[in-house]
Structure formats: structure tokens, C-alpha cells
Amino acid sequence: MNSNSPLRNKVSEEINFNFIVEVIDAQPWIQNFEDELITLFEFCDNHDQKKLLCELLKRFFYLNDIKEREACLALNSKINEWKLSPENTWIVAVANKSEVDGSSAGLQKLKNKIKPIEEWHNRYIANIPSAIDHIKNGDNVVLFDDFIGTGGKIERKEKWLKKLLSENGIDVNTINIFITGFAGMQFGLKAFSEKSESLIYVKHVLLKGISESFSLTQIEYYIDIMLSLENKLGKRYKNKSLPDYSLGFNRSETLYCGANDNCPNNVFPVLWWPIIKNDARHCTLLTRAG
């Protein structure tokens, strides 16, 4: 059959339509990104690529208002379980002083969920540098990030916090640090726990999209399919190299994004990498800045 024949095009359109219906049924939020979803399936070369994307998107974890509230309430329960008091506890976003990121935005959403609200009201700090002059010997610090991927970032932020406190004359051995977030990758949470004594908790724990979600006989096959999709993307975007983000940063295979949030670089790049092989711009399902 000629690749440009009307019959072939009709069959292709019907297959795409079926996949799109499946995804929207499972993920109602994607209705707002219908053009991007259609473009994603048109980007594929064959049925297997489309089928894999369909299966992954149906399991995509989208942190909407309901799931975000669940996470906030769960963090409130965990802070009570840890017996932390507003008298000597600070809740600190992991952001740098000059940046506005997911942790500072998430902290604002958390702010009226930790109870009693009025007693905790002044215990939130928007970034690590601003927290240094508030934290005293013997205090508790709850470091907050909206999403924890590989665990590497939160490990660096914890070390940075300790360094700044030491330089400010604080005995870090008297400081109790707790790590929290709305969601995180299971492998990243485990990696952090193996390197730090700090307790860590997120409400929504996620598995790798392929390696931890399919049978052993399927994993290699589906990884190869995803890599074939990545091969259609441009190798560089601004100062980024695609191989550094293959299967998501550090091969995270993440299927996660918050509503109206910046897409984490842990997510499969086919969902957010904006350049295709001919250096043309690509209409992506998700958006990542930075």
C-alpha cells in the first residue's frame, strides 16, 4: 500500500483517534492539550511506538488540586507523627535565594494545611539562604521540595544547608533535618535514605515508567522503542545535550508533572524536549523551562 494512499491515511487516523480516546478517558486533564496529544502520536513512526506512549500516558501521575491536597494533608499528619512543634521547627523550601521554583510555589500551597494554622503561620521560609539567620541550635528543619526525582538534588540541598549553618556558627549536630515533598520516585527516595540519616516522606511514591512497571520480558523491548522515539529528537537544545536526559535525567523514566507546573527533567524527553532532528520546534505535550 502506498504510504500516501487515502486508505492508509484513514487507517492511521483511526488508530490515532483510538489511542487519543484511551488516553483522555484515563487522563481527563489532557483534554486541555488535545492538539499537543495529536502531535505526539503523529510524531510516531509505527503502531508499537504509539501503543507504548498510550500505555505510559494512561499511567501518568498528574498532580492536580485533589492529589495536591491529599499530599498536603498527609504531610500535616507526618509532621504530627514526627512530633514537631512550631516553637522550634522551620519548614524551608529548597530553592536558592534568587529563584522561584516548584519548592517555593509548593510551600505556599502547603502553608495553610499544617495545623494549627496560626501557630505555624510564621514558620515557613521560601529558600535556604533566608533560613540561615532563623535556625538556632537544637531546632528542627523540614526541607521541602515539590518533587524528588533521583534524590541527588535533595542530598545536595541538605549538605548546602548544613554548610551555611556551620558558617553561621550553628552546631549542625544539634539540628534535626526532615525531608518532605508532594511526590517522588521510589528509587530516588531509597538512594537518598541510603546516604542520609534524615527521615524522608512523600505522599505519592512513583515507579519508573518502564523498568519498574512492565514484566522482565517486556522491559528491554519497550526501552528500545522509547530510544527509537528519542532518536527523532534534536541532539541539543540551548545548553542541553539530549543524551544527558535519555529516558529522563539519570534514566529516571518519570511519568509525573504538577498541574500548571514546570515539567521535571526526570520525565521521558519525548514528552517535553522541544527540538526535533531537523532543529525545528516541536509542539510538546508538557513544557519545561530551564
Using only CA atoms, what is the Rg? 21 Å
Number of strand segments = 10
| Overall average residue pLDDT | 93
Weakly predicted, low-confidence segments = 1-11
Alpha-carbon distance between the termini?
A: 44 Å
Structural class: alpha/beta
Roughly what percent helix? 25-40%
| Main pleated-sheet profile | 6 strands, parallel
Task: Tell me the overall shape.
Answer: elongated
What is the string of helix and strand elements?
HHHEHEHHEHEEHEHEHEEE
Descriptive overview:
There is one protein chain. This protein is α/β, with parallel strands linked by helices. Helix content is 40%, strand content 14%. The chain is built from ten helices and ten strands. It has helices at residues 6-26, 34-42, 47-58, 65-81, 102-110, 117-120, 128-131, 152-167, 186-193, 216-230, and strands at residues 61-63, 89-93, 124-125, 140-144, 147-148, 176-185, 199-206, 236-237, 240-241, 256-258. The strands form three sheets. Strands 2, 3, 4, 5, 6 and 7 form a six-stranded parallel sheet that branches. It has a two-stranded parallel ribbon with strand order 1-10. It has a two-stranded antiparallel ribbon with strand order 8-9. Helix 1 packs across helix 2 (34-42) and helix 1 (6-26) packs parallel to helix 3. The longest helix is centred in the N-terminal third of the chain and has 21 residues, at 6-26. The model is unreliable at 1-11 (pLDDT under 50).
